[in-house]
Amino acid sequence: MLDTRVEKLAEVLVDYSLELKKDDKVVIRGTPVAEPLIKAICVKALEAGAHPMTMVSLPCVDELLLKYGSDDQLRHVPEPTKLITETYDASITVMSEINTKSLSGSDPAKMVMMRQAQSEVMETFLKRISAGDMRWVGTLFPTNGYAQDCDMGLSDYEDFVYGACLPDLDDPVDYWRRFSTRQQKAVDWFKGRRALRVTGPETDLRMSIADRVFINCDGRQNMPDGEIYTGPVEDSIEGRVYFAYPAIYQGREVSGVRLWFEAGKVVKASAEKNEEFLLKMLDTDEGSRYVGEFAIGTNRGITRFTRHALFDEKISGTFHMALGAGLEESGSKNKSAIHWDMICDLRGGGEIRVDDELLHKDGEFTIDF
Questions:
Q1: pLDDT of 46-63, one tens digit each?
Q2: Where is 144: in which H helix or E strand?
């Protein structure tokens, strides 16, 4: 029997996140395990008069490509992928891995090569998103793989996921509209601000946010959501940061990451686990050692670390930074084939000051929004 929460989530994605309308072309990506949600999205899209196309891929394909593919094959970007990125009105990605560690044994150099090949498509995608020419939302379908990552049974994990996406099960669309209005007050507070400083355990970062825009992440591009972010001035970041939470990218877990910045660039990096992978990713391209995003988590309903950035970067009391590509709508000019979010918990002692005014202390906002 279909979980009614699946239909509710599909409703939020179609009617609120993307606001699909008649004749919109929308691509829906996922794996076979996410069939219930993909089908529910298709129904809602058809009811809205849109033209849905599904791209359901086997979860092992990237693993096989990295294992057996030649350099030419790793660099190949299928023409349909380019066409969809350039012409479709909307895109829904349903994350639904059954084995979140499937790429853990892959050669990091090959992974870099594959990411580099996708840089042009990534740039087109980000430009169209920023310009409003394409709407995009990413969500997650609960699987045993994700549940195991955060030491939960599947049933409990389903409750966690749907609880984060549908805090008001009776009217989830109205909930996210109210959330958006409330969070916009924090975004408005940042207008005209120039300098930001974060301090915490082994962390002291300074950056310029002059003439940059903070974005209200309110369920339009992620579901669940709950953050405000900007693209800091690229050459402005100075200092060091320690990420106590593992930084996870393409299924590879890197623990105890420490980064040192000078003039915006990572000039030194270390990790307690998988340091070689970290260093390989940092050398992906010219933009991969610069920060494309600085964000503050605001979702009080997500209280535990799950090893999935969709949830973890939203945890209230944390901030995160993304190495690599930034979104033009925030003012970011950084371009890269990667976008790697790394999360830092400030609840055990930390501060965020903006133009020397205390904004955030020990994981709580000090200003009433």
A1: 999 999 999 999 988 999
A2: helix 144-149
